[in-house]
Amino acid sequence: MQNKTKENEVYSFKKESLILRDLLATDRTFLANERTLLAYIRTALSLIVAGSSFIKFTDNLTIEIIGMILVPFGTIIGILGFIKFIKTNRDLKKIKRIAGYDIN
């Protein structure tokens, strides 16, 4: 219950109080959120590929175990990045909707 009150305080502003600079900052934040998602995907894919290579192309048990750790770790990072992207995107759309501006 207290979390909802805190959220309402964050988004408590009037449409008239937003100026062009604020809207442009929101648009830049959308783009930064997309860049962050791409960075999470890049990191996840790198870990998955490295782990798969360690498993497939080596005969050393220690390196294979490291590969077996990297593959699920990369998958988890990818999932967490996607969840973070969705949450941030939802919050940014909420700000634009409250302000009464077009949402892409």
Helices and strands in order:
Blueprint: H1 2-10, H2 20-56, H3 61-99
Helix pairs in contact: 2-3
Give the tags:
mainly alpha, 104 residues, single chain, 0% strand
Written description of the protein model:
Helices cover 82% and strands 0% of the residues. The protein has 104 residues and is mainly alpha-helical. It has one domain. The model has no long low-confidence stretch (mean pLDDT 84).
- End-to-end C-alpha gap: 31 Å
Tell me the structural class: mainly alpha
Question: What share of residues are in beta strands?
Answer: under 5%
Helix content: over 70%
Give the topology string: H per helix, E per strand: HHH
Q: What shape does the CA trace take?
A: rod-shaped
Oligomer: single chain
Total separate domains: 1
Number of helices: 3
Low-confidence stretches: none
Mean pLDDT: 84
Please tally the β strands and state the result. Answer: 0
Largest sheet: none
Radius of gyration: 20 Å
Give a short overview.
The chain has helices spanning 2-10, 20-56, 61-99. The protein is mostly helical and 104 residues long.
